[in-house]
What we know:
Layout: H1 3-19, H2 35-49, E1 53-59, H3 63-69, E2 75-80, E3 84-86, E4 89-92, E5 100-109, H4 122-128, E6 129-139, H5 151-156, E7 163-169, E8 181-186, E9 189-195, H6 205-216, E10 226-228, E11 236-237, E12 243-248, E13 252-259
Parallel strand pairs: 1-10, 3-7, 4-13
Antiparallel strand pairs: 1-2, 5-6, 5-10, 5-11, 6-7, 8-9, 8-12, 12-13
Amino acid sequence: MQTDRRLQLAELLCAARRDGKQIQDLPPHLVPETEQEAYQVNGMVAELLGWDALGWKIAATTPAMQEKLRRTRPIYGRTYRRHATTSPARFRHGTLLDPLVECEFFVTLGQDLPARDTPWRMEEILGAVRTVHAGIEVAECRFPMEALPPLPAVLADGSASGRYVFGGLIEGWREGLEEIPVVLEVDGVRRRQGRGSDVMGNPLGPVLWLAEARRREGGGLRAGETISTGSATGMFPVQAGQHVRAIFGDLAEVQAAFETGAP
């Protein structure tokens, strides 16, 4: 994919993010040819926007999501601090782009994980983590769900990164996240459920995976960045007027309301 085509796609994605609109008909020649090119475009989007970074999102971290996307490994994308908020959150549904609610562990780093020659070990990831919060990602895509382009274009869009709602702090996370049950309630009714072990066996597994992916690409992760580690409850297409609550055992919860009304 030539540089000018990568730039053209990056500019389209920047405009879509700034305007809160979707790209209805992406020209086929702008679809990145490889995942590497797609992630390069996502980096260009971040540079062109100039927005403060929140961190990263990871998706396809459960067998069900990988099967849905026909993949054997996760995907990731850049996230932005302007799209982070705290629970209880309120959104105007009409301003969102095909929103999907995902219940996730939000991991914030206290130390850098820079590029280096040797692979990262889980012990080092544990030492770099500062906090873990209960979280909801409201995933959005700059392409319409009913007419998604090939996956590399979605990767260029940050793997459909959207809004991030921080819930309660999960104390004692070093004792293990695997056995924590995660439940999604919608208007008081249980609609999805999972547990920490559904996310690559351990919600910190995706952080190790991302550190390795960034290391191989010559990048890294920075202290203060938050990584949303992938949904433990799948994707829920939220509707206007609904209220959602994600419950992480008896440790923490996070809530968000999706109000009706025009943008």
